[in-house]
Fold:
Amino acid sequence: MVEDLEQFASSYGAEDWSDSGHHDFQYEVGRLVECLSIELRKQFGQWIRQVPIPTPATTPRRLQTLDPTAFFLTFNYTPTLQDLYGVLDARILHIHGSAKLPDSELILGHAWNPQQRPSLNDRSDVAEMDPRLVKAKTIIDNYFSATFKPSTRLVEEHRPFFEQLKNLEQIDVLGHSISAADQPYYHALLAFPGVSAARWRVTRFPENDFQTLPAKLLQLGVEASYITTSSWSEV
Structure:
């Protein structure tokens, strides 16, 4: 980003230098950061809320083993479970927001914790740097803070949902990559005895996740004997 916008950081010794352009570089960096955060979330919300949801009459194939009386922790923003499978709202937690609700905050973000990520200005020669570059990097630092996925906070906000998960026999992971950004939710699940004793079935997609996804569950503390895999054709 800095390299792409450096054209706006004219040299102080340039013939066409003007004090009025002193903030052009920082302004352009800030404008791009806003597009990647506030504007991106706004555009995503508009898009996801107009995506047509299949119905039992229009979909070519439904999952045959999905139990509508189960509990669902979904990372999907859409009301697919409700519209296509008849699952009640009370049995679903849209952990990142629901597109069905016009005022629901839709969560987008990454897993780079700003408290653990070093600042771009964390360098020994920062006092010698162009102050415009220091300011621009501060703006980028703030971007990472503003777009960090607040997984821990979301778990606390929805603790009642997690606490009702008792005496589970099986947990199905359908189409989820168990990425670093979402692993706090798995840690929260496994903290409850009713969950940690359950068996896990991971549906592989694509097929090369056959080893990857079970390995991630093992790293989270799930016993190897409790993990099985299946393909989408079996679900």
About this structure: The chain has two domains: 2-9+20-47+112-146, 58-108+150-234. The chain has nine helices and five strands. The CA atoms of residues 5 and 28 lie 7 Å apart. The first strand starts at residue 72 and ends at 74.
